[in-house]
Amino acid sequence: MSSPTGALLVIRAFQLTLPRAAAGWLFALLTSNFNRIAIYELGITAALVTTLLGLYHFLSPFEVVYGRLADRIPILGRHRSPYVFLGMLLSACAVAALPAIVVPMSQDPHSIFGIAFPYASYTAGFLVLTLFGIGFSMAGSNHLALVAEVMPEHTRGLVTALIWTMMILGMILSLVFIRSYMPDYDHAKMQSLYILSIPVVGGLVFLGILGVEPHSKHRRAVRKSHTEKPHASLREFAVACSKDSAVRNFFCYIFLFMFGYSLQNNIIEVFGAQVLGMTVGETGRFQQIWGSGAIVGMFAMGAMVFRGGMNKRTAITIGISGIGAALFLLAYGSLQADSDLVNVSLILMGFSNGLALVGTLTSMMEFSTDAERGAYIGIWGMSIAFASGFSSIASGQLVTALIESGLMYPSNGFAAIFALEALITLSSLWFLLRVKHRCFDAVPTATASGAV
Question: For 115, phi and psi rounded to 5 degrees?
Fold first, then answer.
């Protein structure tokens, strides 16, 4: 297969960002709209809502299964793109079903669609969000594989950064639309808004995969031209990783960083409602504020490391420290019920997260071997997913235990949660500083061929 031209590479790179833009729409609905409405407007226990929203993360180990299935069984002559499309469409259909389930959860949890049995609506919510996770795992693993297979090696770092940026842009633009479409809670509007997920996600993903992947005949021809080395068994690989202190420390760093930072994801809008008295539309701005800061932080990371001669360990440390400072400022803003302080903290938190996240993602790609690149990235992906899942569950448990129980006033309770987030996030630096690997300490030059 001939090498693609520069113009074709640009088109492909843009196309490959579109499935992540679709994911941004889904995340905007789940983590900035659904959680707020379910907990605040409908009065469902925060611990239950955030537990349900965290379920799909625990299906991430099955990304390996879906990737291997796609390796062996092409659909319409393609190994990756149909799985990306079907997975994202399944997730969109699951999100579209949530408004029909959330009202019974708040009114009569033992009945759903006229069918009565113990905790029927909770069971339905569990099944729907499990389907969301299945679809997302199917799409996620194959989307990354598609990037690796159709983009030249020296462009993958840049494309990965663009994909992540597009997801944040997708969230921001989606939130602008969501706020204008439903500034205050209205169930009929909520239903129509969530049903829009099907055409929005389906359309974006279809445009994102159209013509990108070659037919499987070409794929087999390329494979035959290379001699593949046998891989270690999964058990042998796991044992080797468990004995490698650098792998263990990097895994723990990723987990604590993502766990601490993500604790606020599903409760920040509830905080805005309970402490600052904001409407649904006003709390929707929170994601836009930190997302804008994150995009600026990502570009700053590129300037500091890939063009400015700073190693990734230093840049990540600056980012993590900034996140900790922002979370302490957010805690103080909660105590003072000061929306201006909250906005400043969100900008700083987003900017610092952009620094830490891009540094971490590029390190994940380099902290691997050619023979086991997918397996290593799978380990780092599991760390992120488990951290996100546990943080979703823990955040709701903390809100229920500290605030809904009456133990603390909302301003004090949220301040305690944000301060705890800061301490957990900062603790990740202990493990980062103990990772011994060249990818963290090497200083890239401005002319490096693989620079992002």
Answer: -105, 130
